[in-house]
Amino acid sequence: MKSVFNLSILAAGLLTTQFALGADCSLSIDGNDAMQFSTDELTVDASCTEVELTLTHTGAIPRSAMGHNWVLTTESDAQAVYQEGMQAGLKNEYVKSDDERIIAHTAVIGGGEETTITFNIENLDVDGDYKFFCSFPGHFAIMQGQFRIVDNG
To answer: What is the CATH number of domain 26-150?
Structure first.
């Protein structure tokens, strides 16, 4: 009976930890028809090994005319990744295939759509300079921000 009780306590602790980590490791951001993200900074705790990011397009214009994606790179790689991504075209989500400079990216979505990705941040630095942006042609200048990993512990 004691082992069943201990197992129940352990299981409850694991579930609680999972939900607590999930809240700290989940991010959401919106894009709209005015070429704007809902924030210019996203922060995640350094205790996270994976991040779940949800991108929602709150506008009404279709993917082909006002699509948005979310791309994460280092600050120093952002401009080149954007420029090369534009050349890759919509069929490739405006990201160059197999580009190792890209840490994570979503699909391009249109008005009323949503997409979620999960990506690993174990090898990213707490003090690193990371930038997120939309690589749809013409959006980079406005739709960008800082991605920060903070050590709250």
So the answer is: 2.60.40.420
